Amino acid sequence: MLIGAVLAVVGLFALASLTDLLRHPLPEPPARDEPVNDPRVEIQCGAEEVPREGQQREERTEAGVVAVTSNALYDCPNVYDEQRVRYTGEVVGALMARDDGAWTQLNDDVYALGLGPLPAHRDFRGGNAGIGVWLPAEVVAEVDAVGGPRASGDVLEVVGTFHRVDPVTAEVAVIRVETGRVVQPGAAIEDPPLRDRRLVAILLTLLALALVVVERVAARRR
User: How does DSSP assign 164-190, residue by residue?
Assistant: First the structure.
C-alpha cells in the first residue's frame, strides 16, 4: 500500500515536471527605457484649474498639424476636434473597404509600438489603445501586413483631420487621413516547433502504445 502511494506521488511529480518542460518558452520582450503611450498614463490637457475641454495645445510639428496619441484624442476630444493631426499606430484587425478607401484601427499602445502582440511575451502593460481611421486608397495600397494575435501589422504615420463625431458616418473619435506612410513593416510571429518537444512527444507516444500492448496481453492471459 505504501509503495503504491509513493509510486503515485512520484508519478504526479514526474507528470508536473514534464508539463513544465513542455511549456513553450516565450521570447523576452525588447528592452525599453520608457513605455510608449502606456494606457495607464493619464493625459494632462493643461493646467488643473482650467477645464480640460476647449483648451489649445502648442505641440505642433508643422503648420496646422499637431502630433497626438490616441489617449490625448479620447481624453481631450474638443481640443482636437476638426484639427489636422499627425498620428502613428499599428494597423490591426482588418481593412474594411469602403468606396475609395478603407476603415481600420491604428493602435499606438505599448504592444503595437514596442513589445509586439501579447502572445509573443508575458510583459503585461494594461489594455489596448488606438483610434479608428479612414484611409484613402493610395494609403491602403501601402499596407501589406495587418496585426493580430500571431502577427504584427504595418506601423503607419498618418496626417489627417480628427473628428469628435464624423460628419459622414456619425462615428465617434475618428481620423480621416489625408496622407500616410509605412514607417515599420509588420511580420508574422515565428513559432517553430522545438526539437526537444518533438522528441518527448515521440517517446510519450511509444510509451502509450507500449502500455496499450501490455494491457491487451494481460487481458488475454486472464
Answer: EE-TTT--EEEEEEEEEEEEE--EEPP
Range of the domain at 139: 60-186
Torsion angles phi and psi, residue 142, rounded to 5: -80, -15
CATH of the domain at 141: 2.40.50.140
Per residue in 142-191, pLDDT tens? 999 998 878 889 999 999 999 999 998 899 999 999 999 999 998 887 76
Total count of domains within the chain? 1
User: How far is residue 117's CA from residue 179's CA, in Å, rounded to a whole number?
Assistant: 26
Q: Give the CA distances from residue 53 to residues 29, 37, 81, 182, 207, in Å, rounded to whole numbers and listed in that order.
A: 37, 20, 10, 32, 68
Residue 49 within a domain? no
Q: How many residues does the chain have?
A: 222
Distance of CA 222 to the CA centre of its chain: 59
Instruction: Quote the CA–CA distance of 116 and 147 in Å, as a whole number.
Output: 9
Contacts of residue 105, Cβ cutoff 8 Å, sequence gap at least 6: 89, 91, 92, 93, 130, 131, 132, 133
The answer to the question of residue 54 being in a domain is: no
Q: How far apart are CA 122 and CA 117, in angstroms?
A: 10
